[in-house]
């Protein structure tokens, strides 16, 4: 019995040694640049994860078709965050210290992105670009400037949601929100800017079997409309239990619930006319159109989930920055990110990675115009952006109008 | 007042589901001396097997139910014979950890076969019956009746059959049971059959009430353990009672505390019980 721990330790040491030797070998000979994708392929945001991965794949395939960066191909390595902070941090640690990625794209939920930024990317000096984390908390986060995002933040979405609700003649609502940085941030932003009455603000915890108590509590003030700020994983049972319990039958959603899966699991007829807001690019802009064509040529129809275009942008920006920095050094890449993303310089958009790379090789400045917006990072790593007012009509998610803040 | 009654109904539904899971955990703990961590994933497996018949073959859930339960029992007995049986002579903690491994394997298989997407048995929404201001969902009646039938069947099995009596004896006093010539191996297999059948039923009921996700049962494991501890380890009747207490108090807690703390209710009950009366209400182990 007593020799067991010794044997285990020896085996561990050997395994680690092998891992280090092989790691050194692969990076030394092949010159591939690795990009880490921190996406939930399980858990309550899983529907968004798969879509975002496709956006990122599209970007990396384009980069490799143009000869990659630093003379080698770019390789995507995945880490499943499980929509869970602990699993997300573990996955990020693995990508950074074992896979030695040059940059991270993700995570989606702010509740996962923030711990990864605080305990992995800002400490290990690896640039991280989230394509979906909209919490206002990220703006002021002490991240040593290693955390960027390619979506506009929720302080603005709260204002816009409040305006859209007013336009639709809703003046009395109750709010139920996911108890994390995303839910709290957006719920507070909404509370501050909504001119009508908010009769209840109820936070809910993920992964519960029943949300009936929460719903009854939200119903106490007598509102007929429920604003649901959450993710599909728990949002679907909340909707079903609310409808089945006859508690609320009118809902308002935000970006976290903008997924066809929500409509399909609850039934389009009951959700007909439900509306919401989400960050979204002008669908008629040149860059968004080109992105849509590229996506459809490769994967078929573009699903209604947000953050696919912003994940494409994150992939392109990261690789452009690596190319400009001329190395995978985290600090150099971080500093190059702002230069390739914003003015001054010639403008390049989706599908023009090869041209942008050539311009960088000539020593020119470039200004990437993304599929999801201009992607000009400010001092906090935030970007300006537009929003979409969307609705569920005839069992499908449709865009109603584009809103510029 | 209506609110309280409404929450009570919701609590009984949730409590019934937890109770079905807790009976298995309690009996397994009593007889095999380890906390079966894969119990939640057994529930998930049952729910997904029923889903395979409902979505794949278009069967009504009522027809899929017995077959899914039977298949889950088969898997549970197989796992016991292949894995747990070999570890029974080892320390209980080894069984505990291997059950953790089984939980991960079951969940991975479920994700592999059915994918991580959220699915439902029937996407149509059932509108509730309104009775004297109370809202009652038809599925809830199904769940409560189903739970009562299963618990009654369990009661008859434990009281009227030789195997049932032997099982109670073993949970009470394993050494004495062995000395009196009870075939322990047979009792162990029957424990798995009962435990996994009830777990599968609980999983199907829970999925019927909410939706199907690979973490369905795992997420319910804490309340299930709380119910088993509350009722007294090795006490099937205690587990049923414990399940109802946990279910009702979890739903009722939203009246008094912020719903964010709802998951803490089961935890708090475990803690209080372990400090105040570690053997459980019905003097288990």
Topology pattern of chain B, helix = H, strand = E: HHHHEEHHHHHHH
| Alpha-beta content class of chain B | mainly alpha
CATH architecture of the largest domain in chain A: 3-Layer(aba) Sandwich
Number of domains of chain B: 1
Tertiary shape of chain B: globular
- Fill in the CATH topology of the largest domain in chain A: Rossmann fold
Provide the residue-averaged pLDDT of chain A.
90
What does it look like?
The complex is a heterodimer of chains A (405) and B (285). Chain A is of the alpha/beta class and 405 residues long. Chain A has 2 domains: 33-152 and 285-374, Response regulator (Rossmann fold); 154-278 and 387-403, Response regulator (Rossmann fold, 3-Layer(aba) Sandwich), CATH 3.40.50.2300. Chain A contains 14 helices and 14 strands. Chain A has helices at 3-30, 46-65, 85-98, 110-124, 154-167, 181-193, 212-219, 232-244, 260-266, 268-271, 286-299, 308-325, 330-341, 353-361, and strands at 33-39, 74-80, 103-106, 128-130, 147-149, 172-178, 197-204, 225-229, 250-253, 275-279, 346-348, 366-368, 387-393, 396-403. In chain A, the strands form 3 sheets. Chain A has a 7-stranded mixed sheet with strand order 7-6-8-9-10-13-14, sandwiched between helices. In chain A, strands 2-1-3-4-5 form a 5-stranded parallel sheet. The radius of gyration of chain A is 22 Å and the shape is globular. The N and C termini of chain B lie far apart (38 Å). In chain B, α2 runs antiparallel to α3 (61-87), α3 packs antiparallel against α4 and α3 crosses α8 (184-209). The model of chain B has no long low-confidence stretch (mean pLDDT 91). Chain B has 11 helices and 2 strands, in the order ααααββααααααα. Chain B is mainly α and 285 residues long. In chain B, a hairpin with a 2-residue loop joins β1 and β2. Chain B is globular and about 60 Å long. Chain B has a single domain (2-116, 131-276), classed as ABC transporter involved in vitamin B12 uptake, BtuC (Orthogonal Bundle). The relative contact order of chain B is 0.21. At the A-B interface, β7, α7, α8 and α9 of A face α1 and α10 of B.
